[in-house]
Each structure stands twice: as C-alpha cells, then as structure tokens.
Design a protein that fits this description.
The complex is a heterodimer of chains A (about 725) and B (about 160).
Chain A (H helix, E strand, L loop, with lengths): L2 H37 L4 H17 L1 H15 L2 E5 L2 H14 L4 E4 L3 H6 L1 H7 L3 E4 L2 H9 L15 H11 L10 H18 L2 E4 L3 E3 L4 E6 L3 H7 L3 E7 L3 E2 L6 H11 L7 E5 L8 E2 L4 E2 L8 E7 L3 H5 L15 H4 L2 H6 L14 H8 L2 H5 L21 H15 L6 H4 L11 H7 L1 H10 L1 H8 L2 H11 L15 H7 L7 E6 L2 H5 L2 H13 L2 E5 L7 H5 L3 H20 L3 E4 L2 H14 L2 H10 E3 H6 L15 E5 L2 H5 L3 H10 L3 E4 L18 H13 L9 E4 L2 H11 L8 H12 L1
Parallel strand pairs in A: 1-12, 2-3, 2-4, 4-7, 5-8, 7-12, 13-14, 13-15, 15-16, 17-18, 17-19
Antiparallel strand pairs in A: 5-6, 6-9, 10-11
Helix pairs in contact in A: 2-11, 23-25, 25-35, 27-29, 28-29
Chain B lengths: L2 H7 L4 E5 L4 H8 L4 E3 L13 E2 L4 H5 L3 E5 L2 E3 L4 E5 L4 H7 L2 E7 L3 E2 L2 H15 L3 E4 L4 E2 L6 E2 L6 E7 L3
Parallel strand pairs in B: 1-12, 2-3, 2-4, 4-7, 5-8, 7-12
Antiparallel strand pairs in B: 5-6, 6-9, 10-11
Classes of the chains: A alpha/beta (about 725), B alpha/beta (about 160).
Chain lengths: ~725, ~160
Amino acid sequence: MSRKRKKKADELRRVMEEDGEAIGDTTRLATQLTEARLAMTPDYEELRDEARAVKENAIERLPELIEETKSAVGENGGTVYVADDAEDANDYIREVAREEDAESVVKSKSMTTEEIEINDALAEDGVDAWETDLGEYVIQVAGDKPSHLIGPAMHLSAEDIAEIFNRELDTDEELPANPIELTAFARDRVGEKIKNADIGMTGANFVVAESGSIALVTNEGNARKTAVTPDTHIAVAGIEKIVPSVGDLDPFVELIAKTGTGQNITSYVSLLTPPVDTPTVDFEKDELGEEGGEGRDFHLVLLDNGRMEMRDDPDLRETLYCIRCGACANTCANFQSVGGHAFGGETYTGGIGTGWEAGIHGLDSAGEFNDLCTGCSRCVENCPVKIDIPWINTVVRDRVNREGDGNFDFLVDGLSPDAEDGADLQKRFFGNVERFAKLGAVFPRTSNFLADTRPFKAVLSRFFGVDTRRDLPEFSKDTFVGWFDRRTGDEGDETVVVYPDLYTNYFSPERGKATVLLLESLGYEVVISQPRESGRAPLSQGMVETSRKRAEKVADDLLGHIEEGRDIVVIEPSDLAMFRDDYEKLISDEDYETLSESTYEISEYVENVTDEEDFEDIEADTDVLYHSHCQQRSLDLEAQTVSLLETAGYDVTTTDAECCGMAGSFGYKSEYYEISVDVGEQMMEGVNVDLEDVTVTASGTSCADQFEYLTGSESEIPHPVELLAERLRERS
Amino acid sequence: MDLLSEFKRNGEAKKHRCAPEEFGEVLGELIEEPAVGIGLPFDDVSLPESVNVEPTAREIRDSVTGVTPARIGVASYGNVTVESESVNELVALYSDAQVVVLRESDVVPDMDAAYDEMDAEMTETRKSQVLVSGASATGDMGTLVQGVHGPESLDIVVLEGI
C-alpha cells in the first residue's frame, strides 16, 4: 500500500472507531423514521416536484430576486449586504458589532456562518460568539467540528457530552450522562448568554424576496429567542436561499423535517419579517420597549462565496437547490460508518457536501472525501429536491482526477490508455477493468494462479491500491460469449437480446448461461449483443470522457437491435442503471430515451410471462436469502426478483440493508477496505436467518463477492436466475 | 370528515374544543399561575383575570403558562400559526407551557392553503408569523427531550362556532 493510501486508511479507521457507533445508530434510526414517514405521505412526489420547480425558478431568477429582497428588506427598515466572499461578510458583521459596541453575540445554528468562520473573526475583535443550538454548543465547548449538517454533535453520546461539560465548564456538581439533565444544564447556560447578548445572529432556511421575510426551521426554539431577544438581529444566508414569495414555502416546510429527521414537521417554522414588531426586551432592568419594535435593527447578509459561479456551472448548479436536510448523509451506508468528520470537507458533510465544497472551497476540500460516494444512488430518493447527488460526485471526481497528479507511470500506461481523464493509477485500473479482464482471460488459469500469489498482490497493492486482503474475482475457464457462440440455440417466435456484461462474460458465465436457458424455456430465441463494457467502470472512477466513449459504442450496438424490434435483457444491475439512468448524461436524449425504454433487468423481463406452471412438479423447499443491488433498488426492481423466486417455489427472505459495502471497486481499494467490511458487517447483523439453512443469492457481481468474502463461502454466490434455471433443469 | 375533526385528530398538540361561553372554564383548567398573555382579538371571548395581560419583561420570563391567540389552524397537520403581535412572541417563547386559542373559522384544510393565506397577508402587512406544531424539543443530548429553549407543552383551545 502506498504511503498516501495508508495514511488515508489510518485516518478513516480512527474516525470510524471514534465516531462510528454514535453516528451509525442515529443515522440509521433517522433513515428508518424517514422511510416510515414518507410511506405515510401520499403526496411526497408531488411535493418534491413542487419544491424542485420553486428552486429551479428561483436560481434562474436569482439576480433579480436579490434586488427584490434588497428593496423589500429596505422598505421594512432593515439593511441587506451582499458579500462576495467570507472575508467580505465577516468584515461587514464586525463593522456592525463595532457600531453596536457589542461584547457578545449569540448564534442559532447556521452552516453558512460555519462556512465563513464568523466566530473566529469576531474573536479577533474581542467579541464573544456563543452557539445556542445545544448540539452546536457542545461542539463549541469541546472545540470540535460538526459531524453532520443538522446534527452537529451526532458523533457524541450522552457519556461523551457529560465528560466534555464536566471537563470544560464549571459545574456545581458532576453532571451525569443523562440527556434530560444535560439538556437542562445546557439550556440554562445558553439561556443566560441569550439574555445578555448584544446581537443575535441567525441563519435563514429561506429568504422571501417579495416580503423581505426569513424562514427559520427549528425544534428547540433557540433561533426565535436569538432573533427577538437582543435588539440587533443579523441573519446570514447564502444567496441560494431566496425564494420568490411566502406561498412558495409550502412544499419545503412540509418536506424538510420528513426527509431530515422523519418528523412530520418541526416544532417551529418562524416566518419573521425583521426588524420584528416585538417590543425590545431587557430582563435585567425589567423593561419592555414600545409596541411596534421601536429600536430594533436588522441586517441581512447574503453570501455569494462561489455560488454565482456554481449557478453558471451546469453540473454544480443543482447543488444550490439543496435545503440542507441531511437526508443524503443519513441514508448513505458509508456515512453511517464514518460520519462527517471523514465524509466531509472544510464545512459541508455527506453526499451533497461534495457539491458545496467543490463550489465554495474548491476541489482540494471536495477531493478529500469525494471517493466515499460509491454512486449507489440510494440518497436520491430521499432528497426533497431531487438532486442527482451521485452525478455531482462523479463530476467532481472527474475534475479532481484532472487536477491531481495522475501518478504517471509509463510501464502501465499502455494498459490504461485513458490518461486524458487524468485519473490516478488506482482509478485507471478499476476504470479499465475490461482491458485487464481481456488480457487475463487469454490464459485464465495462469491469471488466477498469478492473482493469488504474493508478488502479484504486492504489485496490485503498490501500483493500483488493491487491498491484499481481498481476492480479485476469478477468471472463468471459458467466457460466456465463447460458450454462447459454440452452441446451437433454440428457435423461437420472438428474438430477445442478452447484454453480455463484463462480469458475466469473464468471471461468472453461469449466470449468463442460466439467463439464456430461462429465456429459451419461455419460448424466446436468444441472441447476444457485443461484449463491451457499458462505461460503468470508468464512470464510477470519475472518468467521464472514457465512459462517454464506451457508452456511445454500446448504445450504437444496442440501438441496432432495438430497431429490429428486439428487447434488451440485462443481468448486471449496475449496467442496467447505466442504460436506464446514467446514459441520460452520456448519449443523445433521443438515443437515451429509446434505450432506456427497451432495456430490462432479467427478472423484471420474465416476471410477467412466467407463472407457477413453468415450475410445476418441482419440489419446493429451499429457503433463500436474497440481497438486491443498491441501484436495482433505486430503480424499484427488487420486488420482481422476489416475486419470480416465489413463483418458482422458493421461500424468500431479503436483506434490509441498502448496501453491501462493496460497491463495485470500492471494497477492493486498500484505503476503503475497512469501511467496506464495516458496512458489510452492518448488513449481516440485520440478517435474521441462519446462513446454514439458506441459499444466499445476489443480483450484483460485487455484492456476491462481498457475501463470499464476509461469509467465507468457498463456492460462488449465485445470481437468482441461476436458481431458476436450476429448477428448470430439475424438471427436465 | 369535517375540518375541525381532522384538525383535532392530527398533530402533536393537545386539543380542546369548547363553545365560546365555556371558554373561561376550559382555559381555567389548562393554566397554571403565574400566567401571562395578551388580550384575545375575538368577539365575545376574553381571558380570565388569572391571566396577566399587561406583563412586564420579568413577569413574562417567570411565567408558567403563556396564552396567545392563533391566526390560522391547519387541519392536515393539527398545528397553528401565531402572529408576532405585541409581546406574543415573547410570551410564546419564555413561558413553560404554551396555550393557543383558535377560532374554528380560522381552520384551513392544508398547508398549501395556510401559506397562500399568509402570502396574501404578509406581503401586505409585513408582519411575522410562527407556525407552531409542538413543544420545544432537541435530540442533541442523545435522546429526544422536550422543553428546551421554548415551552415543554402545547395546548390548543378551539372555539367552536365562531
């Protein structure tokens, strides 16, 4: 393992040990609650469409809306300052603090103020800034960093927090690790700060251009207290937070808690139009000001800090639709294992964090954690504004590749000819897996023998970052295409095309053979398309141009078949996801539409044309544990396989984990091996059947590899279609 | 189902329905003194004398119950909006127990309707309004705890027929 990869692996291991348990418990619970909540929300899709449309419109009209906000806030008696960058924003806020002679500022939770690091800037002038959100307060007292967009102290347990308070603060007596007592203690401490503060600083979840209002979404109520207790209120918000009118807030108010925490709605959604009418208040002197809020000041700092450039960037623009609910972090298997201290950049965390960091702090910060997104697409369904988070991660990876030092090495250059993508050798190895597979398949026995030897593993580890604890998939003695070409197939009324994906072809031809057998038994005549890699491998490494070239060739070939009126059947779910989903970004719209409508996952394809009769007279007593594939689940195609297996007489239990942890090449990479195993073990913990009693089956190649590895299975984990074919064989 | 029944069924707040003439009695059972509030802007209904309607800053801070009128009730969520009229916002934040009084005629079917109504009003009046759905709460200390910076309970009294 190279020194760089070892350092990364060490750091990830440390964070996983320190934060993993608390983060995992909370994010998994939040995801469960969210999924239950969304299941009870019949108009979820409608709300998402509405929310998305509001954001698209608002970002499109942003320059105009900024002007409208300025004049509305001005009419209300407040001031708007548009800050170009963090320093500009901080200078303005420091100036306000100076004018107010402020000694202390209280803050409600705001990622945007974390982004500009206002607390440090105020400290330079001797102004104390105190966090009032209890999670942020803990982080501040501990001198730590937030580990999650909405749960900054999510990585800490009650025991950790008690220890921090007892260590860092003067407590009358030792605080116990009791959440109720800790909450009461922190509330009282923070309450005093609020009452004595000169300035209250809040963020804004939304800014309304028409009325100059700001919306604050909270459960604690600290944002409201922060906004109305001190006489001066400063709100800091990114320019992307502006929406045109109050009426536009509806879908967001309904969605943000559902996707973020699984609550139906937060305790409070304040819609303040500052300076507010609430009389000024001085508890010390027991004084209330005049009705109408005479003597209150309001400053709205709208922060650009790279956002206008993101708006002009077609790939990053969507990031600006993010309402920072944290759902993409909660749902992510890798985030669940490590949390935002590893899965995050300078300020922002989780899947969408990559987009924010790339736009605001640059590729160095984004590149630190971008590889932790495996593109499983699980987060997309829970994103309230339907952001294509995996795509943003892919694009950022591509840019990081191009900017980075590609570890050029002429020896292996010939093997991976895609230097134009700028990726390092590890990425080029996995991105060009087809080239290596073709070479290896020439002498499969030699290749398998070599792959298992220590020197070869050392080379793989050193140059390509392949973890020595993993075995590479074994080459089959014969390829699927070789087998297919030598046989005489059945004739049928309808011809169907099987796409011979790379993994089926070189490593697991049995599932290809089973697919052909199953289709023929149902009366189809089977042909195969050209054995070309779909572009999934390079895409997952952020090698977008290489992927595009592959996609164009594969699409060309498949479209020819479709023109002949043939459907395309796909075995590997990650390739199907390419045709159905990712190709939208890689080939022409027209070709994408045709292709996506004519490609089918094998179980999906045959489910409608099979019934019990096809499997009659077969003894049915085998229990099956089925693990679907992350992208297959995102495409809503798990149920079809389950139903098909049940039709064939199997008793099916499914895994409930989203991801097995392998995610294609991810689990082979030495720096991510341990996270991959951790995610896999989480999955196995959720399995409530005895593995001795069941046949394990998985749709994805790498999922099967992970199962084999985790269970120490000697035999290959079959694809469900192999079980079906076995049934058919039993009958004949 | 009628709007009022739907309102009552949904949401986390405890709901109490009464005719305007029963209001004093129902409210009396909900409040614990010292109680503060502001006069209700509804005809034929007023707060009992046990509620201090001209509180000082400290009386607000030290109050147990805070009573405020609601502007809108949302049937599909069982929650209410409270306008930041006068000391409303302070009363609603600094008391330990929040009681909100809502007229049946102010209940709208859903959030969409509520925000349309707020849109029409606020763009004109430039007031502030808070949508309140439950008690102040946090999960930051390891488990859900109610009663953080704001009240630890929310009761809504619905005045039927007006």
